Amino acid sequence: MNSRERLLTALSHKEPDRIPLDLGAGCSCKFTKYFYVKLLDYFGIQEELVMNHIPYQLVTASDKVLDLLKCDVRSASLHPIPQAENPYAKKWEDADSYYYTNNWGTRYRMPKHQGLYYDLIGGVLQDSEDEEGDQKFIWPVPEKFPAADRQQLEDYRRAGLATTISEQFGNGFLQQGPLMWGFENWFAMLLTEPERCTLFMDKLLEKKKEYYDHIFEVYGGLVDVCSEADDFGTQRGTFVSPKLIREMILPYHKKLNDYLKAKGAGYMTLHSCGSVEASIPDIIEAGFDCLNPVQISAANMSPEHLKKTYGKDITFWGGGINTQSTLPNGTPEQVREETKRNIDAFARDGGFVFATVHNVQDDVPIENFIAMWETFQDHCKY
C-alpha cells in the first residue's frame, strides 16, 4: 500500500498493511520551533524555519524531515492572498515583552525573558455589553489562495501521500467566542443571552463556508481529510454541558461538515482537546469521522475505553503518547512502554492514525521522541 491507500483503509475501519503515521504534518501533531531545531540537529539538516502559528510558535516541517520520519500525511502549505486590510492585525514590543494581535482582535503577549509561547491577554469584544456593541466587530474577509498552490497537492497525490487541509477560518463555534469576548463572558452569554451567540455563530458559519469555497477553488479533488478545531474539553470534563454542546454548538458543525463533504472534503476531523468522552456520540452524529488529538490523560479518555466503546464509529487520530507527562518527563523506556501499550489498545480493526497527543513541545528530549518513533516502527505492522 502507498501512504494514501494506508490512511483511507484505516479511516474506513479496516486494517491496512501498517498503521498510518502523522508526525509534524496534520491536525495538531506539529512541532514547536524549539523542538524542531533539535530534530534538525538530530538528522544533521540545515533549513530555514517557516512559522505557521505565532501564538503556539509552531513551524512547518519540511518534506525532507517528514520523509525521514516516514510520515504518511502531508498538509497543504497555504499562502493566503488577503482580500482586505485588517484593522486589528499588528505586532509590537516593549522592553519586557512581544505582543501580537490577530485578525480577530485577539491579543497575545510573550515575555522576552524565557518566553516560549504567546499568552492570551484580551479580546476585541471583552467590554461589549449587548448586540449593538457586538456589531462594531469588523469581520475578517476570508482569504483566497493562488491557483499555483494546487501543484503541491498534485505532487503529493502522485507520490502516493495522503493529503489534508489542516488550517481553518478562525476557531470553532464554541472556541472562537472566548477569544473575542473572554471565557467568562462567552460562557455566560451562551446561557443567558443565547441569541447574541447564535447571531455570531450564524455569521461564522457563513464565513467558514466562504473560506472553504476559496480552498476548493484551488484544491478541489485533491483533499483526503479536512479538519475543524473546537476545544470542548478540560482535563476533567467539558467546558460547558454536553447538552449545550449537542444542542447549540454541534448543529453548526453538522451544517459545515455536510457542506464540505458535498464539495469533496472526504473525511472530517474534529480537533478537540481534553475530556470529551461525554460528547463523542454527538461528535459522531455531527458527521465527524476522526477525533484528534485524543487526550488520553484526561478523565474517561483511556485508550481501552475509547476503542471498545467508539472504535467502530470514529477514527482516533492521535493518542499515541502522552505529551503532558510521559514524552517530556519520562525515561526512554517509559516512552517505549506507553507507545506500545497505546498501539495495542487503538490499532485493532483499523480506525487509528498514530500521532502524539498534541504538538511536540520544547521540553521534549530528542531521545524520548526517537524512542517513541522507533517503537512505532517496531510495532506498526498488522
From TrEMBL:
Residues 182-378 form the Uroporphyrinogen decarboxylase (URO-D) domain. It comes from Desulfitobacterium hafniense (strain DSM 10664 / DCB-2). GO terms for biological process: porphyrin-containing compound biosynthetic process. Coiled coil: none annotated. It comes from the Bacteria. This is Uroporphyrinogen-III decarboxylase-like protein. One of its GO terms (molecular function) is uroporphyrinogen decarboxylase activity.
